[in-house]
């Protein structure tokens, strides 16, 4: 029996309590929404599709379009081939996308539907496409679904023609549209023509115009995906989410790649800027150096409030690694760092960060859950918690200042519009972190200390 009052933290292999991840199709759907005029399609029962759309819509506060093969008992027993062919016909007739991006679900994986052969047998309207990827939800997390869908698109579309595009491919990883805009802005500042794949900016942060667009303006175009193989190099961001699609493009088209951590904080943003400088062979512009300087100045100015403060960070692996690096740069102690995604590479990367900054007595764990994190915090408290909405119960129970970052953030507005990446994203994060710590101080300090701060 799990008990929150005991100091004894049990090792659990088969049970997750308050998981820190969701299932593969959510990631596949999010990746597909970053492709222009694409209809994500869930090959399974309607409930799965509803859940995946709901979690995306609640995070982005935007409609996340998707269709479903709508399995009933018959398809569950005899396979979903006819459901897929009826779906494809209806979707092209009614919604007219350029491409349908099919992902599987637990059910269609378990009965062994062969999507490759189903798709080969489809009769498609001229110029229309169907691509697919397998997303068994009992493997990995939504992070796997995201990169699997990227690889699915490249498997179907990307070729090396030998005519260079003169553009650098950038795989931004799982970030918000506000992050993609910031990454693009930095690439433009560095004078690097770039294709971002996938690109949800303009799709899941589309402006209010008074007219509903079923397919908003944004998204990587099919031609851009087709010509990724002729790119002038690839920068893949997010060492956990980026490695497999980068390897896939390299294997198929011999595009050399640079794999980097998500550019959160000073050091990791520097790495992104230096990779862009290598592509453009130009100097870093003064304006970008000034942005960096402003972030460093802010960190120094506020270090008296952050130095030595203990922080627990949880969420998806790449954003958590980035936030851990930023916390260490701010002189904080990342006491507990977890992800729900089962990737041991995560634990290794975070442990390397602890060693680099001389942080001792800190824990990193992949495939962890929020119950375990809560137990650790009960045994030895922290000063700050950073992660998705699902941390709010821990923050309330233990009265810990809480910064919402990562995915999903369901109970606040505006987050997907604001970057956490780049020097400017760093400024926004530092402002939030210091503000949260000082708000707690103001609430709990002695009267005389309150007067002094005023
Ligand atoms: S049944 Fe599988 S695919 Fe569907 S929502 Fe649940 S975990 Fe995800």
List keywords for this structure.
4-stranded parallel β-sheet, Rossmann fold, 19 helices, globular, alpha/beta
What's a quick, concise take on this entry?
The chain has 454 residues and is of the alpha/beta class.
| CATH H-tier superfamily of the largest domain | Nitrogenase molybdenum iron protein domain
- Number of E-type strands: 13
Shape: globular
Unreliable stretches covering 5 or more consecutive residues = none
**Could you give the distance between the termini?**
48 Å
Computed Rg: 23 Å
Largest sheet: 5 strands, parallel
| Tally of discrete structural domains | 3
CATH architecture of the largest domain: 3-Layer(aba) Sandwich
Q: Which molecules are bound besides the chains?
A: iron/sulfur cluster
Structural class by secondary-structure content: alpha/beta
Helix content: 40-55%
Q: How is the largest sheet built, in terms of strand order?
A: 11-10-9-12-13
* Mean of residue pLDDT values: 96
The count of helical stretches stands at 19
The fraction of residues assigned to DSSP E strands is 5-15%
CATH topology of the largest domain: Rossmann fold
CATH class of the largest domain: Alpha Beta
């Amino acid at each position: 029996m799990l008990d929150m009052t005991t100091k004894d933290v049990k090792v659990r292999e088969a049970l997750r309590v308050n998981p820190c991840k969701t299932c593969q199709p959510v990631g596949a759907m999010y990746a597909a929404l970053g492709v222009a005029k694409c209809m994500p399609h869930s090959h399974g029962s309607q409930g799965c599709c509803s859940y995946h759309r709901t979690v995306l819509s609640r995070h982005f506060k935007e409609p996340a379009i998707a269709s479903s093969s709508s399995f009933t008992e018959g398809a569950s027993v005899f396979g979903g081939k006819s459901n897929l062919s009826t779906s494809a016909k209806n979707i092209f007739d009614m919604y007219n996308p350029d491409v349908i991006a099919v992902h599987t679900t637990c059910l269609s994986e378990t009965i062994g539907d062969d999507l490759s052969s189903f798709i080969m047998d489809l009769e498609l309207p001229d110029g229309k496409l169907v691509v697919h990827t397998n997303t068994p939800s009992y493997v990995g997390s939504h992070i796997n679904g995201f990169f699997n869908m990227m690889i699915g698109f490249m498997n179907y579309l990307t070729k090396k023609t030998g005519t260079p595009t003169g553009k650098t491919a950038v795989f931004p990883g799982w970030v918000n549209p506000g992050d993609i805009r910031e990454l693009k802005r930095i690439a433009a500042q560095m004078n690097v023509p770039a294709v971002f794949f996938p690109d949800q900016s303009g799709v899941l942060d589309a402006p209010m115009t008074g007219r509903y667009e079923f397919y908003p303006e944004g998204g990587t175009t099919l031609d851009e995906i087709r010509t990724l193989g002729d790119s002038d190099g690839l920068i893949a961001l997010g060492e956990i989410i980026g490695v497999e699609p980068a390897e896939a493009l390299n294997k198929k088209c011999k595009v050399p790649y640079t794999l980097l951590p998500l550019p959160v904080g000073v050091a990791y943003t520097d790495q992104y800027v230096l990779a862009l400088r290598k592509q453009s062979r130009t100097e870093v512009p003064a304006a970008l150096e000034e942005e960096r300087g402003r972030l460093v100045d802010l960190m120094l100015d506020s270090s008296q409030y952050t130095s030595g403060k203990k922080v627990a960070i949880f969420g998806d692996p790449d954003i958590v690694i980035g936030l851990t690096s930023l916390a260490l740069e701010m002189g904080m102690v990342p006491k507990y760092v977890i992800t729900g995604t089962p990737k041991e590479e995560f634990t290794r990367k975070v442990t390397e960060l602890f060693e680099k900054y001389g942080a001792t007595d800190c824990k990193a764990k992949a495939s962890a859950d929020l119950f375990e994190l809560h137990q650790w915090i009960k045994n030895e408290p922290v000063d700050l918690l950073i992660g998705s909405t699902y941390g709010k119960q821990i923050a309330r129970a233990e009265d810990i200042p809480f910064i919402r970052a990562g995915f999903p953030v369901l109970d606040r507005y505006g987050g997907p519009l604001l970057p956490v990446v780049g020097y400017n994203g760093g400024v926004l994060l530092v402002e939030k972190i210091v503000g949260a710590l000082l708000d707690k101080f103001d609430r709990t300090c002695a009267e005389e200390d309150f007067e002094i701060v005023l």
